[in-house]
Each structure stands twice: as C-alpha cells, then as structure tokens.
Design a protein that fits this description.
Organism: Actinoplanes couchii
Low-confidence stretches: 21-52
Subunit structure: Part of the signal recognition particle protein translocation system, which is composed of SRP and FtsY.
Number of strands: 8
Bound molecules: guanosine-5'-triphosphate
Keywords: Cell membrane, Cytoplasm, GTP-binding, Hydrolase, Membrane, Nucleotide-binding, Receptor
Strand order of the largest sheet: 3-2-4-1-5-6-7-8
Enzyme class: hydrolase
Order of helices and strands: HHHHHHEHEHEHEHEHEHEEH
Structural class: alpha/beta
Subcellular location: Cell membrane; Cytoplasm
C-alpha cells in the first residue's frame, strides 16, 4: 500500500513538473505578435513592385517652339458697283426728311399762295441747292402747277422729281476713265483738301474697280501724313492690290511716278494716286499738284482727276474746291459724307458752280459705301416715296 501511495505522489509530482515546464514555453510562444496576414490590395490598386526600380531619369523637356502660323490674307471680293445708290438710299434719310418731305407737304396743299412758294424756296436753299438753282427750280414748278391746275400728290411728286433731275444735268458724262489703253494702265489722280475723305475715297474707288472686275495699284503720294500711306496700303491689302509708297515727307511726285511705272510693269488696269491736300495757299498747291501731274505725264496723260469734296462743309467747301479746279483739270467730283447731312441739295450746287459732273457719292464709312452717281436714283431717294 505504501508503494502505491508513493507511486501516486511521484506521478503527481511528475505531472506538475511537466506542466510547469510546458506552460511557460507556450506563453513565450504567444508573446510575439501574431503573424500578420498579408493584405490583398484592391484590384485597382497598383501592386508595388517587389524590387524597387530606380527612379526614371528626369527628362527636362525642351519647350516646343511652334513655327509661326502664316495665315494667307483673306482677299475680299467687293460687290459690283451697279445699283449701289439704290441699295444705300436709306443713308440719305436726313436729307429726305428735310428736303423731300418738306417740299411734298407744301406742294400738296390745295392752293399755293405766295408764302407757300417762299417756303419751298427756303427748303431748297436750306438744303444747299444754291440760290441760282433754287430760283430756276421754283420758277419751273410754278409754271407747271399753274398749267396743270388741280394736282394729286403723285402728280406733284413726279413734277418735283423731274425738276430736280433736270437741275442735276443728267446728260453730263459721269463715266470713270479707268480702262487701260495703249498698253498702259489708266491713271487716276485723287485730289482735295485734307479731311474731305480723300484717302478713304481712294480706297473705296479701288474696291469699286475691283468689284467691277478690274485690277488696281495704289500710289501713296500723300507723303505729308505718314498714316495716309498706311491707310491706303491697308485698303489695298484687303483687296489684294499693291501699294507703292515713299519715305515719309518724301517727294509726292516721285512716288506718283514710281507708282505709274510699277503699274505699267505689273500690267494693272488702273493706277489710283492719293495726293496730299495740306497746302496753305494756292501757290503751294499749284507747285505740288502741278509737279505730280507733270511727272506722272512722263508716262502718258492722266486719264481722270477726281476732286473729293465733303458734303457737310456746304457752300464753304465749294470755295475751296474752286481753287483745285483752277490748279488741275478736274474731270469729276466725288461728294463724300452725304449720309451725315440734311443738305443733299449740295450735289446740284456743286455741279452748277464748278461745271463738273458729280461722278461718285460717299454714303458712309463702310468700305463699300461709295456709289456711282445716278441723278434719277439720287432724286428718288431724296424725295422718298412715303410722303
Ligand atoms: N460718314 C462718312 N464718313 C466718311 C465718308 N468718307 C470718308 N469719311 C470719313 O472721313 C474721315 C476722313 O477721311 P480721310 O480719308 O482720312 O480724309 P483725307 O481727306 O484723306 O485726309 P488727309 O489724309 O488728312 O488729307 C474718316 O473718318 C472717314 O471714315 C463718307 O462718305 N461718310
């Protein structure tokens, strides 16, 4: 029995000892953190490479210097000039209100008394028709009204139109001599006081000629105003026409000569020469324009000399214009800025006083606001149809 008890005790001691040895070991094994389970990156996340690649060398990109885009200039093709006056008739609205409507309302009265005729005269004079022309027009109207007796508005309108057209001398030759001849271009001199719209008109005439199928070269002989040469050159570039210019303050006659020479060599139809009007006195004007003309005529006669007149300057402008007609042989008048005045009657006065036909009229600042002058269409626009 004793042996059994001893054996049991021994067994218990052995078991306790074994447990004592095993448990601490297990505890020690628990201490290190549990091995981490590698997390699977989400599908769209880039898996980092196992072996780190060396960073790619930094490439310094040279700035790309783009070659300048040279755009071909857009060459405009202006509309032909036929019918322009009719298309631009609304521009005469100021004159129409002052002259056309005023006259029609008086003329439509049942019995025209002396003061009515005076009123008619006054309207015409206010519209710059000029005293002489006014007297003729009123006289003729009085006679017709007396003979006709009772009148309708339509009849009166018709008579008024006829008298104004007659005062504009419709038989005058208003064609522009711009066609080439004898193997050389036609030469057109554009003259007038500064500010009248000379350079602008020169550019517009070029467009009219190109619109009608011709070719043009500009001569920038207004060397007094540097901007004038730039201005005319810009007009030329828009329609693909060449401009011959000289140094600022240079000799206008020499520029004009070179322009005609270049025009002959390049075979254009018309050479348009813009001149300067900045001349204090008649002697200076005579010297300069006379020289330009003489020098140009070494190539052949000048075909057309156009005098540019500002319609808004009225009767005063007419006096200045007369000086030009004494200096050069003016063949036609271009009356500008008719859109800005109620004095459209100046056309009649200009022709009467200068004895030179109005060939073109300026009706705005737009490039194609220049129309060949047609007396009937002009008067129709001036009188209007809704009075
Ligand atoms: N409303 C209107 N303005 C016009 C017309 N014609 C020209 N002009 C304007 O008149 C101004 C003077 O025109 P320019 O052509 O520079 O005058 P210029 O006679 O050449 O003047 P200089 O070169 O100084 O001798 C400009 O602002 C034009 O746009 C027209 O028919 N109607």
């Amino acid at each position: 029995m004793e042996y059994v008890v001893t054996a049991v005790i021994l067994l218990v001691v052995l078991i306790v000892g074994a447990v004592g040895l095993v448990v601490p070991k297990m505890r020690r094994r628990d201490l290190p953190p549990p091995p981490t389970v590698p997390t699977v990156p989400p599908v769209d996340q880039e898996i980092p490479p196992l072996v780190e690649k060396p960073a790619p060398p930094v490439v310094v990109e040279e700035p790309v210097v783009e070659a300048p885009v040279v755009e071909a200039p857009v060459i405009e093709k202006p509309e032909p000039s036929a019918g322009r006056l009719v298309r631009l008739r609304a521009r005469l609205a100021r004159s129409q209100t002052a002259l056309g409507r005023g006259l029609l309302s008086v003329l439509s009265r049942d019995h025209l008394e002396e003061e009515d005729w005076e009123e008619i005269e006054e309207s015409l004079i206010t519209a710059d028709v000029g005293i002489e022309a006014t007297q003729v027009i009123v006289e003729r109207l009085r006679e017709r009204v007396r003979v006709l007796g009772s009148r309708t508005v339509a009849e009166v309108r018709e008579q008024l139109v006829e008298e104004l057209v007659a005062a504009l001398e419709p038989e005058m030759d208003r064609s522009l001599k711009t066609a080439p001849h004898d193997g050389r271009p036609a030469v057109v001199l554009v003259v007038g006081v500064n500010g009248a719209g000379k350079t602008t008109t020169c550019g517009k005439i070029g467009r009219v000629l190109i619109g009608d199928g011709g070719t043009v070269l500009f001569g920038a002989a207004d060397t007094f105003r540097a901007a004038a040469a730039d201005q005319i050159q810009t007009w030329g570039e828009r329609v693909g026409a060449e401009t011959v210019r000289g140094p600022e303050g240079g000799d206008p006659a020499s520029v004009a000569f070179d322009a005609v020479k270049r025009g002959i060599d390049s075979g254009v139809d018309t050479v348009l020469i813009d001149t300067a009007g900045r001349l204090q006195n008649k002697v200076g004007l005579m010297d300069e324009l006379g020289k330009v003309k003489r020098v140009v005529e070494k190539h052949g006669a000048v075909d057309e000399t156009l005098l540019v007149l500002d319609a808004t300057t009225g009767q005063n402008g007419l006096e200045q214009a007369r000086v030009f007609t004494e200096v050069v042989d003016v063949t036609g008048v271009v009356l500008t800025k008719l859109d800005g005045t109620a004095k459209g009657g100046i056309v009649i006065a200009v022709q009467r006083k200068l004895g030179i036909p109005v060939k073109l009229v300026g009706l705005g600042e737009g490039p194609d606001d220049l129309a060949p002058f047609e007396p009937k269409a002009f008067v129709e626009a001036l009188i209007g149809s809704d009075a």
